[in-house]
């Protein structure tokens, strides 16, 4: 992959396409998307703060100014449970860059760091330092002083709650009124008192989908007997940079040709992609079973379809987990070595979105909290085959922008049939892709997401100020 990447850079330099350089300097779903944005407002309705209708205002003049300007000179402390290439930490980094862009003073804390030096952490920390984000130790007096002085504290993920008692101790009560808790998790094991006992007392919770917000509301009440604070649902959005690439036919073609050549996939072949960190919860194993089953259906019915390939983006060969070993053993057992391709975790997933024809979002159990890769794929006019669970159901319109199947083993055969259906009908793929792109333009752009975040931050600051005057 290193050799292929180097040859691609040579090609870019020869072509002198600034847009392509921008793509590889920016970060997509598994990386940091630098959102420079405008925003749309929120209103409170019932338990959750809901999004206003954004269908008619995407080109409105109100998006020309940056509504985060009110954060200028504010001191913001961002607390992440870890620093990795997973969605939660990188979304918090995105917020850090947003705030730095308007002149806020931003301080970053990573609560859990390995004792030995980690290349990913080193790279991401220096990316932040280069953008003016201050990185300090999670423990010690500096962390305590910063928390007390901060105008706003953002705790990222439920696990970050461990930091409060471990570090702030007697000062926890002082800072709770200015905490915004950004929650991305959908797993039951996060509902533990040592993690979220302070949750009812913070200024607010920000959650990526209504499905996740409802789950947290019910689960905290049933398991812990606590009530959620004021909860804001903020759907994510695609960055301007990603949309520029997605709408540039030349850029997409070059990316598509390069990736397919590196994988050994012809242009006329049908390439199915699943882009998530490889883990059982993301359903790569069930996807591969469905892929194999789809090939059996095609063979049995003697259907005329393009040669089909599958690419799994998000592996970590350095760890070679038991689950990854299972995936590779299945591929060898079914003699799929020439048709299934594994790609390591990468900061640049957009080339793989450009290269595939169909995105499979196969997250299991309660599904994805939101699934940013889904809206990124839709921006590239790709149909999405997703599990009928979690935030995916708030993005994908079944039969219009993609097809949904049930999670679990019972979803394998329906997914296989959906794969065959899209393989047989190129016009259906194109229509769904076009519909998905239009849905992104209506609902999932950076100014839709960013304005909602700004509205949340403004309310949290007002809450903190009101409590300080009491």
UniProtKB/TrEMBL annotation:
SUPFAM superfamilies: UDP-Glycosyltransferase/glycogen phosphorylase. One of its GO terms (molecular function) is glycosyltransferase activity. Keywords: Glycosyltransferase, Transferase. Pfam families: Glyco_trans_4_5, Glycos_transf_1. InterPro entries: Glyco_trans_1 (IPR001296), Glyco_trans_4_5 (IPR041693). Residues 257-439 form the Glycosyl transferase family domain. PANTHER family: GLYCOSYLTRANSFERASE (PTHR47252). This is Glycosyl transferase family 1 domain-containing protein. It comes from Cardamine amara subsp. amara.
């Amino acid at each position: 992959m290193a050799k292929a990447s180097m040859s691609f850079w040579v090609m870019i330099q020869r072509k002198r396409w600034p847009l392509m350089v921008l793509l590889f300097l920016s970060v997509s779903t598994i990386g940091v998307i630098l959102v420079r944005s405008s925003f749309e407002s929120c209103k409170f309705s019932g338990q959750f703060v809901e999004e206003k209708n954004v269908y008619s205002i995407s080109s409105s003049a109100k998006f020309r100014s940056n509504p985060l300007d009110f954060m200028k000179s504010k001191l913001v402390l961002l607390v992440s449970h870890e620093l990795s290439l997973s969605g939660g930490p990188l979304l918090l980094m995105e917020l850090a860059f947003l705030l730095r862009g308007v002149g806020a003073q931003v301080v970053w804390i990573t609560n859990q760091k390995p004792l030995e030096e980690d290349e990913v952490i080193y790279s991401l920390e220096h990316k932040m330092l280069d953008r003016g984000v201050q990185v300090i130790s999670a423990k010690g007096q500096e962390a305590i002083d910063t928390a007390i002085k901060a105008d706003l504290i953002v705790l990222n993920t439920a696990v970050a709650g461990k930091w409060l008692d471990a570090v702030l101790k007697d000062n926890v009560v002082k800072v709770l009124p200015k905490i915004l808790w950004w929650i991305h998790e959908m797993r039951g094991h996060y509902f533990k008192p040592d993690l979220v006992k302070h949750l009812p007392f913070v200024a607010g919770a920000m959650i990526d989908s209504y499905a996740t917000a409802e789950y947290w509301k019910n689960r905290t009440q049933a398991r812990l007997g606590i009530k959620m604070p004021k909860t804001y649902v903020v759907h994510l959005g695609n960055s301007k940079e990603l949309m520029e690439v997605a709408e540039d036919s030349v850029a997409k073609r070059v990316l598509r040709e390069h990736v397919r050549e590196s994988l050994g996939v012809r242009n006329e072949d049908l390439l199915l992609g699943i882009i998530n960190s490889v883990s059982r919860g993301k359903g790569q194993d069930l996807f591969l079973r469905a892929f194999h089953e789809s090939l059996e259906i095609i063979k049995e019915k003697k259907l005329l379809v393009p040669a089909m390939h599958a690419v799994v983006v998000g592996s970590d060969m350095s760890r070679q987990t038991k689950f990854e070993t299972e995936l590779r053993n299945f591929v060898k057992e079914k003699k799929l070595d020439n048709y299934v391709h594994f790609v390591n975790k990468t900061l640049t997933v957009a080339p793989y979105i450009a290269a595939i024809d169909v995105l499979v979002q196969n997250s299991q159990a309660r599904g994805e909290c939101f699934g940013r890769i889904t809206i990124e794929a839709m921006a590239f006019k790709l149909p999405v085959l997703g599990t009928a669970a979690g935030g995916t159901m708030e993005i994908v319109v079944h039969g219009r922008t993609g097809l949904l199947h049930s999670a679990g083993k019972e979803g394998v055969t329906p997914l296989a049939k959906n794969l065959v259906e899209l393989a047989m009908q190129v016009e259906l793929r194109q229509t769904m892709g076009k519909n998905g792109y239009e849905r992104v333009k209506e609902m999932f752009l950076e100014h839709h997401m960013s304005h909602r975040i700004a509205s949340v931050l403004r309310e949290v600051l007002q809450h903190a100020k009101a409590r300080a005057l009491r």
